[in-house]
Amino acid sequence: MNTPHMIVEALLIGRPVPFRGEDYSAIAKRPVDGPVRIGWDGLEGNAVADRIHHGGWDKAIHLYPQDHYDWWRQARPDHPLLDAPGAFGENIASRGMTEEDLCLGDRFSLGSAIVEVSHGRQPCWKLDHRFGARDVMATIVRTGRCGIYFRVIREGEAEAGTRMALLDRPLPQWSVARLFRLLIGGGHKADPDAVRALVDMDVLAEAWRERARKLAA
Q1: Which of 13, 37, 147, 178 is most buried (CB neighbours < 10 A)?
Q2: In angstroms, rounded to a whole number, what is the distance separating the alpha carbons of residues 196 and 194?
Q3: Which tens digits make up the pLDDT trace of 6-29?
Q4: Percent of the chain with pLDDT over 70
Q5: pLDDT score for 217
Q6: Strand 163-168, strand 92-95: pairing
Q7: What whole-number distance in Å separates Cα of residue 190 and Cα of residue 188?
Q8: Dihedral of CA 4/141/79/55: which sign?
Q9: How far apart are CA 178 and CA 63, in angstroms?
Q10: DSSP letters along 124-164, please?
Q11: Helix axes 206-216, 176-183, angle to 10 degrees
């Protein structure tokens, strides 16, 4: 049986630059040539502007499935951001698995590093501003094409072309798509028991556990 896996089409890093008014952002990331070091905080050379909402242990690496790009190109014909990886500020541009396939706690090889799925990405206004549109964030909430965050379990090194193989899947019933629908997409109303179950799930990022607590109250 083939081991579930993804192919890394690009690894990308960014640094904070002026974005809107007095706001800075590192969402405009660029591909890295050759090997890149992967530390506890993510890809070497990458930085974030807003340490409250980005970066840290639970958000060390952001992956966005390139499998979604064809859908976005149909929804946003001829948008230049969709001509290359990085439109959504991702560190890993991958192909082969999406939020429906990836589960909370999944551990993957990433070159010599090991990474673990911590939660999905909750979209913010910066995506709307980046795309010059008012409904990118709302579209992600509606469709669940959110992207994934990883924490780093073992430091290492990787490069584009790497095969990310699934090493462990402790929670196959908790896909990122299900988590997103429950906690971000409004599905908590239909399945309150599932939301309550997430409150004490240590592998879930603290930000989403806190969201589960509020929704379960």
Answers
A1: 147
A2: 5
A3: 999 999 999 999 999 989 999 999
A4: 97
A5: 87
A6: unpaired
A7: 5
A8: negative
A9: 17
A10: -HHHHHHHT-SSHHHHHHHH----EEEEEEE-EEE-TT-EE
A11: 50
Instruction: Answer whether 9's CB lies under 8 Å from 16's CB.
Output: no
Look at residue 75 and give its three-state secondary structure: helix
Paired tokens of 77:
């014909």
- Write out pLDDT tens, residues 178-210: 999 999 999 999 999 999 999 999 999 999 999
Residue 118 CA: distances (Å) to CA of 23, 40, 57, 152, 207: 27, 14, 9, 10, 10
- Please provide the size of the chain in residues: 217
Q: Cα(154)–Cα(2) distance, rounded to whole angstroms?
A: 24
Helix (H) or strand (E) holding 179: helix 176-183
